[in-house]
Each structure stands twice: as C-alpha cells, then as structure tokens.
Amino acid sequence: MKIHSNDLLLGRILEPVSSALNEAAARKLVALKVDRKTRARVAKLADKCNEGDLTPEERHEYEMYLMANHCVAVLKAEARILLARKDQPA
Description:
mainly alpha
C-alpha cells in the first residue's frame, strides 16, 4: 500500500498524542464508538454525497466528519500497535 504524504503529515501531527498513550488509554481509545445519532447523520450525508446532492454547508460538514474519523483511525491504529507490543513476550 502506498503511503500518501498527507498521511505522513497527519502521523507527525498526531505522534505526540499517540506517544503519550499508556495501556489503559490505548484500550479506551480502541473501544471508542461514534454515537448512533452521529452515525445516522454521516450516513445521510454520505448518501447525499453519492447522489451529488450535498449543499456547500453539508459538504463542509461531511468533510469535517471524514477528517475527524481519519484522525481517530490513525490514533486507534497506533493504540493497537502499542497494545500488540505489550502483549508480546519480552
């Protein structure tokens, strides 16, 4: 898989957060779930986006959700790596 330069930049920006994770925080982070209302809103915006029916305001809102999701996904991946290392014998 090719790593995009934006992903590298995001990784550098989020590195201070991920490096500060302890095991308990990593477990909480991995378990985080978006609430039902937010999931429904994102699904509605995704459907409208696929149909080409987003207003400029909705497009901005949808892009913010996507950006936030990407940031959380990167942090969750880092948390999973930390937890996997903790589970490995020394």
